[in-house]
Amino acid sequence: MHKDELWQVYAPNGEPIVGEGWESALDNPEKTGADAIVGVAVVFLYQYNDDGQLELLWQRRAPGIDRYPGYYDISAGGHINLGETVVEGAIRETREEIGALITTEDLQFAFTKPFNRNRFAWIFMVDWTGRPDEFHFDDKEVSEVKWVLYSETEEFRKKYAKPPLQRDDITFLNLDDWLKMRGMVSGNI
Q: Residue 12 — pLDDT band, cuts 50, 70, 90?
């Protein structure tokens, strides 16, 4: 998070309110008691390894970052800036956090999910199979990335992910359903 960003504010029906932003320096609206609703773009990179097993990319938060330093987080994600579309936010956050260059065509919409009364997320998947593992952490939010077998995601998440993700069973059940509907996994995580 950059303290000088203005986050896009949304109406209760999910439509962006043109020209209305929330000052990121004020932190998340739910902490202030405000009624503002902000959005988050979340991107999971996945690949099939040489053994044909599905893996998800996790980023490790840098030691000097203010929230959850040293914990693992989703591949990339963050708040949608004022005037930015959800897709533009997903592409920007992926570039800023891990240096991965993705396009609109790369993004596979998975689902939306409310975080609380003031924040909701659009979750996207990106197939990284066959692409080089050349990630760069230019904004200093991330210290490293790690591919984790999908079959080990639940254990990894409960041990190493930032606490909100450790408790976020709904997102990972939805992710599991999305992967099952595409025939990418069977059974439960």
A: confident
CA angle 176, 160, 180 (to 5 degrees): 10
Domain boundaries 6-181, corresponding CATH code = 3.90.79.10
Q: What tens digit of pLDDT does each residue of 147-177 get? A: 999 999 999 999 999 999 999 999 999 999 9
Q: What is the DSSP letter of 158?
A: H
Determine the Cα–Cα distance for residues 189 and 152; give it in Å rounded to an integer. 8
Q: What distance, in Å, lies between the first and last C-alpha atoms of the chain?
A: 30
- Which is nearest to 61 in space by CA: 46, 49, 73, 43? 73
Are the C-beta atoms of residues 128 and 46 closer than 8 Å to each other?
yes
Q: What is the DSSP code (8-state) at residue 157? A: H
**Total-model pTM:** 0.90
Strands (E) across 11-168 are located at: 16-23, 37-48, 54-61, 72-73, 76-79, 108-116, 119-127, 142-149
169-181 and 153-160 helices cross at what angle (nearest 10)? 160
The predicted-structure confidence for 110-150, as pLDDT tens digits, reads as follows 999 887 778 889 999 999 999 999 999 977 899 999 999 99
